[in-house]
Design a protein that fits this description.
The complex is a heterotrimer of chains A (504), B (307) and C (275).
Chain A: H1 2-15, E1 27-32, H2 47-56, E2 61-63, E3 69-71, E4 74-80, E5 85-90, H3 104-115, H4 117-120, E6 131-138, E7 141-146, H5 153-156, H6 167-180, E8 188-194, E9 198-203, E10 216-221, H7 225-233, E11 239-240, H8 248-252, E12 257-272, H9 282-291, H10 294-301, E13 306-308, H11 331-341, E14 348-354, H12 358-373, E15 377-383, H13 385-392, E16 401-406, H14 413-421, H15 434-444, H16 449-465, E17 469-482, E18 485-486, E19 502-503
Parallel strand pairs in A: 1-10, 1-11, 14-15, 14-16
Antiparallel strand pairs in A: 2-3, 4-5, 5-7, 6-7, 8-9, 9-10, 11-17, 12-16, 12-17, 13-17, 18-19
Chain B: H1 2-29, H2 33-38, H3 46-56, H4 62-75, H5 88-123, H6 128-140, H7 145-159, H8 172-201, H9 204-211, H10 216-227, H11 229-253, H12 259-269, H13 272-300, H14 302-305
Helix pairs in contact in B: 1-13, 5-6, 5-8, 5-13, 6-8, 7-8, 7-11, 8-11, 11-12, 11-13, 12-13
Chain C: H1 2-29, H2 63-99, H3 101-116, H4 119-130, H5 134-160, H6 164-171, H7 176-212, H8 224-230, H9 240-267, H10 269-273
Classes of the chains: A alpha+beta (504), B mainly alpha (307), C mainly alpha (275).
């Protein structure tokens, strides 16, 4: 009996109502790599959550496609008490998808839930710990009171964890129920969800920011990037969010497809093991930086879908120094430096990376090619991703070089530099430099934006001077898109804003 | 016979028990999911990790965690996924039928092809048909399954546009995964059928059957096939584990939301409850298949029972 | 009939021998190694120039050099893993099948546990714990496959030890290990050889599947599986990057299997006598 039930349900899934074809008018289908399994904003950090969640929920403040802050559920805000109190004027007449009203009560509930025991189970809480209290002034005014200065708090309020949730519904359903059937104030409401298969959104009907042009949005979860492209090529999805670099050519060669790209949030560098091996020697590190032709890697391997960087941040980042000059590609000088370092014969230089990073898999081989050319003996070692980020790097078990991609959605160099270079930080298993520590700590206490920017730029130059890393590139965010999709602006933060998008 | 059955059953239970112990122990060696959960949140403090570990129950001693898992498996409560908190039993109930269907259809399709071909090859041993079938099966053995899958997608989805390249929506999406698996399986199965058929055909009773003037079809498909059925079933049973392994790769290429996909995600995110459940369920099924074969053997061959 | 058999041998030996020879000589043939990279020459078409007869890969490396040198890793992985598994499994199977008793119980129960574990899942989990390199891959394949040989040899041994020639050898006082070595092993070896030929091929393929799942070895060391897997995203734009390593796998596997079939007939007294 039970067996028959199982067989029946299998048949129902496999043979049952096929999903509407991507070609259906008004329906947009997006291939997304991962199902976060739970749509509750406080227990996730996945970009794939943001791609969907940003259409279901709103924050008090939001960011547009250029990542500029704009009013969201708050129409305006002011900074009081030397930055220790943020006062928000809330939008009136907004309701959640289930009819619950949005008001100061909902803001207070959301924040207290985030900062309370429920939030402690997830990764979002730690971004918001500088918040001391939420005080309701009147039904449509609310104060967020900080316990310590946090210059990026307003930006953080556009982040996942601060998405406003409906108090009554969440209390009724609990985290599990809410995560499986999420309700927000966003332009789209969830109408169907099958774990690891797809989630379907439809316009909520009364969005404060206008009416979406789409009738339906389907996100399909497809892990393998090549499979996403196959779905795109056969017209079953309109947007492939993961495109292997080897398949870019196949997409641009197809008449009805195009590749849309924008500057992405992630910067990739190969960091040096400054404590052991050949790279302990600053001359060797400098030689490696000179030996690798970043321009060629970007142009040839990444097909121009990246920009070379000079430090561990993108041009969009607060702390980027336009005056900082890249160390030029100069194999002859590199050879000379290596000769000076008098390395024992047969010294190997290992380039370690996470095995799921297929882009870097090719880049690592190119780096190895350049290192061979200047007389070093390279190795490339892929590690399983989780092992790499949880053991190999933090416990200082890497080879001479290890690849890291990093990009805080706050776009503030502090978010990278402090975690990468300050002694004792998780991502810094090797360096102990009091001078650098002092600079990193110092900039955090500077209230003046201009001064702080200068301090961050100084750090970036210091890091380059000591060759703590081989700066590589800022990879673009690029999508394979069917040309029937109109009005799509590629979001650098992977949070699709679909309100103005339409399909033919 | 009763004692034999009971012994085999006890053995099966023992094997599953050891498997659960191994799995629970191995996944915990593979790294801590709390760091994974906290990652991307910027600065992770020791306290954040402690909170997450406590929420997941990872701060309890191993014996306690293992006992909880074991009791849960017996009562059908497989716990909740670390990633998103969904009930694992629900996830398995969704994925298992899809995987079994894929495996069963592939096996059926493969037997449908390899039994007649294998018999033909055995009968015409050394002849042109035998050689052709053998070479064909060798080609089936000479490329990896993911490669075949990608080729099929290239031809049938991208070039011809006949079949969906991924997903589980409708019967058409079954065609390519089954075709891939069945091709690989057939390559071995043809050889197995041929070999066991050759042995059977040289036996006395086949000569007798032939001498009685029975038609060749009856001799082959009724008498000979029945007698080589048991070694065949044994081999197929042994293949079952490999079949499930192959499904992991195929499911990934075709984005088939079955047990393989579930397990793969679970390893990557160190989702202990899901991984434990998936491996235990699959291992139990493999053990049950082997148990069935053992019992079958016991009925047929008294020497096995005497053990 | 005999002509066909010898044709099979010539073809099988030719293919696998030729491949082995090329691989053995590869260090001398491509003294420069397969690492010479030239991004300006990336994805050169095959059959266009003598410098790169089979074209170049996305990093501008010579495909021919990489295919030939790639055989070193692939054949080493295939042969060593199978040799390890076959020796260990045959030994265990002989002991378990001949002596029965507690040895049989422990070995076969352990075999049951291993057979109940889906291989790929275990591989993924252990790669996550230990990381991967060529030797770990070989060890892992051997450890997970010895069971197959043990089961096959054990069941053959159980039947063989009841046969007259074994019983009579026993009766005239031949020692156990001599019986095993001289009477049981030669008669139980045929299925082992069949399994081995299948598994050498299988493990060459397995290496590529593991690379596909992201668990492969150092991508700088060329291997057929790695090249096949890495080249898959270029299939639509540069087919030669993965076609030639695929062809190398196919020919080698074909050769091994032909050789294996011939070998089986040569050593198996039962099939021989029927001819």
């Amino acid at each position: 009996m039970r067996l028959r039930l199982i067989a029946a349900s299998a048949l129902a899934v496999a043979l049952g109502a096929p999903l509407p074809e991507a070609k259906a008018a008004g329906t947009l289908t997006i291939a997304q790599a991962q199902d976060p399994n739970n749509w509750d904003p406080i227990i996730t950090f996945l970009l794939s959550w943001g791609a969907v969640g940003s259409n279901i929920y709103d924050g008090l403040v939001m960011r547009d496609e250029q990542l500029n802050l704009k009013p969201g559920l708050a129409t305006s805000w002011e900074v009081l008490d030397q930055g220790m109190r943020l006062r928000f004027k809330l939008r009136e007449g907004v309701t959640f998808h289930n009819g619950e009203p949005f008001n100061a009560e909902a803001v207070k509930f959301t924040m207290e839930r985030l900062l309370g025991p429920e939030g402690a189970k997830g990764p979002q809480q730690s971004n918001y710990t500088s918040i001391g209290a939420v005080e309701i002034i009147d039904p449509y005014s609310v104060d967020i009171v900080l316990k310590r200065p946090d210059p990026v708090m307003i930006t953080k309020l556009a982040g996942y964890g601060a998405m406003i949730v409906p108090p009554k519904y969440v209390t009724e359903k609990g985290s599990q129920g809410f995560g499986a059937a999420p309700v927000g104030t966003g332009p789209f409401k969830v109408t169907g969800y099958e774990n690891k298969v797809h989630i379907t959104l439809e316009p909520s009907g009364h969005y404060w920011g206008g009416k979406p042009k789409l009738d339906k949005v389907i996100y399909k979860f497809i892990v393998e990037p090549a499979t996403q492209v196959a779905e795109l090529q056969s017209g079953r999805v309109d947007i492939a969010s993961q495109v292997p670099i080897g398949m870019i050519g196949a997409i641009t060669a197809t008449a009805n497809l195009q590749l849309l790209s924008t500057t992405g949030p992630t910067v990739t560098v190969a960091r040096f093991n400054t404590a052991n091996g050949a790279t302990k020697d600053e001359r060797v590190r400098k030689a490696i930086v000179m030996a690798v032709d970043r321009e060629a890697i970007v142009k040839q391997i990444l097909q121009g879908h990246a920009k070379p960087v000079t430090s561990f941040q993108s041009t969009l980042s607060f702390g980027f120094d336009p005056a900082q000059k890249p160390i030029p590609f100069d194999p002859a000088a590199a050879r000379k430096l290596i000769a000076e370092a008098k390395l024992p014969p047969g010294t190997t230089v290992s380039v370690d990376f996470a095995s799921n990073n297929t882009v870097f898999r090719e880049v690592a081989q190119a780096i190895a090619g350049y290192l061979t050319a200047v007389g070093l003996k390279p190795q490339a070692r892929p590690f399983e991703m989780n092992l790499f980020t949880n053991d190999i790097i933090p416990n200082g078990k890497t080879g001479e070089m290890f690849a890291m991609g990093w990009g805080g959605w706050t776009f503030d160099y502090d978010n990278t530099a402090y975690l990468m270079y300050h002694s004792g930080e998780r991502w810094n298993p090797y360096d102990k430099d009091p001078a650098l520590d002092a600079m990193l700590e110092g900039q955090r206490t500077i209230a003046d934006r201009g001064e702080r920017q200068k301090a961050l730029q100084k750090i970036a130059n210091y890091v380059a001077e000591h060759a703590l890393e081989l700066p590589l590139y800022n990879l673009d965010t690029y999508y394979g898109v069917n040309k029937r999709v109109k009005g799509l602006v590629v979001p650098p933060d992977n949070r699709f804003r679909l309100i103005d998008v339409s399909v033919d | 016979m009763g004692r034999f059955l009971l012994g085999r059953l006890a053995l099966a239970v023992f094997v599953v028990f050891v498997v659960t112990l191994l799995v629970a122990w191995a996944v915990r060696l593979s790294g801590d999911p709390s760091v994974m959960l906290a990652e991307g949140s910027g600065a992770i403090t020791a306290k954040d990790l402690e909170n997450i570990r406590a929420a997941l129950g990872l701060n309890r001693p191993f014996s306690e965690q293992y006992a909880g898992f074991l009791v849960g498996m017996l009562t059908g409560d497989m716990g909740n996924s670390f990633m998103g908190g969904r009930a694992v039993s629900g996830m398995v109930r969704q994925a298992l039928p899809l995987t079994l269907m894929l495996a069963a259809l592939s096996l059926a399709a493969s037997l449908l092809v390899s039994i007649p071909l294998g018999i033909r090859a055995a009968v015409h041993r050394g002849g042109a048909a035998d050689q052709a079938i053998r070479i064909l099966s060798l080609f089936g053995l000479s490329f990896p399954n993911f490669w075949l899958a990608i080729m099929l997608v290239l031809v049938f989805s991208i070039t011809l546009g006949w079949l969906p390249p991924a997903g589980a929506d409708g019967p058409s999406s079954l065609v390519m995964p089954v075709l891939t698996m069945a091709t690989i399986l057939s390559a071995t199965n043809v050889r197995l059928v041929r070999t066991s058929m050759l042995e059977t055909l040289s036996a006395q009773y086949i000569m007798v059957a032939r001498s009685k003037g029975l038609t060749e079809t009856v001799v082959l498909y009724k008498h000979a096939l029945r007698n080589c059925a048991i070694p065949l079933i044994t081999y197929i049973g042994l293949q079952f584990g490999g079949l499930i392994g192959g499904v992991v790769v195929i499911e990934r290429v075709f984005n088939w939301p079955g047990m393989g996909s579930l397990a793969f995600d679970a390893v990557a995110s160190r989702d202990y409850p899901v991984l434990q459940a998936v491996v235990t369920v699959l291992a139990t099924m493999i053990v049950l298949v082997n148990l069935a074969i053992d019992v079958l053997y016991g009925f047929v061959d008294p020497r096995v029972r005497a053990e | 009939m005999n002509r066909l058999r010898s044709l099979e041998f010539i073809l099988g030996a030719g293919l696998s021998g030729g491949m082995a020879l090329a691989v053995l000589l590869s260090d001398w043939m491509f003294a420069g190694g397969a690492d010479a990279m030239d991004l300006a020459m990336r994805l050169t078409l095959p059959f266009q120039s003598l410098a790169h007869p089979l074209g170049t890969d996305p990093l501008g490396r010579d495909v021919l050099a990489r295919v030939i040198l790639g055989g070193q890793v692939s054949l080493t992985v295939g042969l060593l893993s199978v040799a390890g598994a076959a020796v260990a499994g045959t030994f265990a199977g002989l002991i378990a099948g001949y002596y029965r008793g507690p040895w049989d119980l422990v070995l076969m129960r352990w075999a049951d546990v291993q057979l109940a574990l889906p291989f790929i899942l275990v591989a993924i989990t252990f790669a996550a714990i230990l990381g991967t390199d060529m030797w770990k891959l070989i060890a892992f394949m051997a450890i997970s496959q010895w069971v197959q040989y043990a089961r096959v040899v054990r069941s053959a041994t159980i039947v063989l030890r009841e046969r007259e020639f074994v019983l009579s050898a026993h009766a005239v006082g031949v020692r156990n290990h001599a019986i095993i070595w001289r009477h049981i092993l030669p008669n139980a070896i045929a299925p082992v050889l069949v399994l081995m030929t299948l598994n050498v091929a299988n493990n060459i393929l397995l290496e590529s599947s593991l690379t596909f799942l992201g668990l492969g070895i150092d991508p700088l060391i060329p291997s057929w599986g790695g090249m096949l897997s890495d080249g898959r995203t270029y299939l639509q734009t540069a087919w030669w990057v993965s076609f030639f390593p695929g062809l190398a796998i196919m020919l080698t596997v074909l050769g091994l299997n032909l050789l294996g079939d011939w070998l089986r007939d040569a050593v198996d007294p039962t099939t021989r006598s029927q001819r």
